[in-house]
Design goal:
369 residues, alpha+beta, Leucine-rich Repeat Variant, four-stranded antiparallel beta sheet, 18 helices, 11 strands, binds iron/sulfur cluster
Length: 369
């Protein structure tokens, strides 16, 4: 039986910033997850609804699983000025996608950690049938905030999380140095326990994606709209999306825990996310609107942005260009009216109409009565 201190030491050596573990009982937060699915809040993310029983029971993922181990790596990189990120002529990219694709960085280290932990293990970074945030809370790594993120009280929420299920029981040491089985470890976190009366994330969401604290309607979430949604972005939501072209950080950026405690990691794994590159964090919209497939692949290969594909990223850039409202975008948008992708053509036409309407309104407002 491995001891908690040995597991922690090894996790830190392997480059993880945080590690916690809990007995592999029923998944915490199961009721919340099922209610979220039945309300249809997952939108087109059909994979979330597929075999939900697997997400709710670690035994269905690894028969004989005894422990769930959760690791975290900070992806806070600071260093890109807000004036650049908020420049409407640039498309804004969520912080987690500024560097290398985190799956490529974290998954191999997590698999190696799983092999060290036990004879049998299953390791997942975001793509498996494990509710990482709920387990991270159960493992004592923080609390789930009203914005649905896992918030570590001393590091904030800019954290990549990974899960390993193992068929070994781990031993938890008490502070006085004796040991007790992990299964006797008490759970201290309760829902939104660290939020108190704060509602900054709920108030700041421009698309009103939180129908209630801790409930995210993905269908209105900018992250979902710019990454997961494959079709047309609902017209009524487009003007609310600002310059986001891949993901969104608003509900984390405003969180007092992030503002106060978020800091870059010294871990060797986190080096893959440095140094932050301005053109990755906030590429110029005119560049994005002019990308052909070859340019897109060359520019974003090895990053999480590939998930959106060229057509998705250009669709999003069209929405951001409409919100920018500048004539400068019109030549590139007009070229996109002949794009091979109907999705791109439709969003380019919307952006052109929006810019014209904006210009007409401005000239009307400026003309003497
Ligand atoms: Fe909780 Fe406030 Fe952070 Fe939202 S912004 S997660 S309410 S502490």
């Amino acid at each position: 039986m491995l001891s908690a201190s040995l597991v922690r030491e090894r996790a830190l050596e392997m480059g993880f910033d945080l590690v916690g573990f809990a007995p592999a009982g029923p998944t915490p937060g199961a009721e919340r997850f099922l209610a979220w699915l039945s309300a249809g809040h997952h939108g087109q993310m059909a994979y979330m609804a597929r075999e939900p029983e697997r997400r709710l029971d670690p035994q269905r993922v690894l028969p004989g699983a005894r422990t769930v181990v959760i690791v975290g790596v900070s992806y806070e990189t600071l260093a890109v000025p807000h004036e650049i990120l908020q420049d409407p002529s640039r498309g804004r990219i969520a912080r987690y996608a500024w560097g290398a694709d985190y799956h490529d960085v974290i998954a191999p280290a997590l698999r190696a950690f799983g092999e060290w932990l036990a004879k049998e293990s299953r390791a997942y970074v975001d793509t498996g049938p494990v509710l990482e945030r709920a387990w991270a809370e159960r493992c004592g790594l923080g609390f789930i905030g009203k914005n649905t993120c896992l918030i570590h009280r001393k590091r904030g929420s800019y954290l990549f999380l990974g899960a390993v299920l193992v068929n070994e029981e781990l031993r938890m040491e008490e502070e006085i140095g004796t040991a007790r089985p992990l299964s006797q470890f008490s759970i201290r976190n309760s829902q939104f326990s660290g939020c108190g009366r704060c509602t900054r994330c709920l108030d700041a969401c421009p698309t009103h994606a939180f129908p209630a604290p801790g409930v995210l309607d993905a269908r209105r979430c900018i992250s979902y709209l710019t990454i997961e949604l494959k079709g047309s972005i609902p017209v009524e939501l487009r003007p609310l999306m600002g310059n986001w072209v891949f993901g969104c950080d608003i509900c984390q950026d405003v969180c007092p825990y992030v503002r106060r405690f978020s800091r870059p990691s010294n871990s060797p794994l986190a080096k893959a996310f440095y140094p932050p590159n301005v053109e990755r964090a906030a590429p110029k919209l005119l560049d994005l609107l002019s990308m052909d497939r070859t340019t897109f692949n060359a520019r974003f290969k090895g990053t999480a942005i590939m998930r959106a594909k060229r057509r998705g990223l250009i669709r999003n850039a069209c929405v951001a260009a409409g919100n920018w409202g500048s004539d400068e975008a019109l030549p590139a948008l007009r070229r996109l009216l002949d794009d091979e992708e109907p999705l791109v053509r439709e969003h380019a036409a919307w952006a052109i109409a929006t810019i014209r309407a904006c210009a007409a309104y401005t000239s009307h407002a400026a003309s003497p009565m």
